[in-house]
């Protein structure tokens, strides 16, 4: 009668041991995958930081030839693009440039 009680317990213990061993293997695989993903995540974050810096640099250089003029009238209604260009050049020559640099652009230049 004692064997009737012990044998199922031993079988149950063997099954549990097998399950625990299997779960340990799965946990080790998952831990390894987590380490790989963390490493990949760090690499991607570094690449993103580098790309942000690159974009910032490109934006800086892309704006270097731009000039923003505020509070300047665009002329009377119906003014053409040529009129606005002439007014802008006149404004820059009068307000921004002095001495030898004034008059760097005029309507006589053949620029488009």
Give a written overview of the molecule.
The protein starts with a helix and ends in a 16-residue tail after the last helix. It has 2 domains: about 70 residues; about 45 residues, no CATH class. The chain has about 110 residues and is mainly alpha-helical. It contains 2 helices and no strands. About 0% of the residues are buried. The C terminus is likely disordered.
Task: Give the structural class.
Answer: mainly alpha
The strand count comes to 0
Q: Tell me, briefly, the overall form.
A: rod-shaped
What ranges have pLDDT less than 50 throughout 5 or more consecutive residues?
107-112
Order of helices and strands: HH
Classify the beta-strand content into a percent band.
under 5%
Sum up the structure in keywords.
112 residues, mainly alpha, 70% helix, 2 domains, disordered C terminus
Reconstruct the topology from this structure.
Blueprint lengths: L1 H62 L17 H16 L16
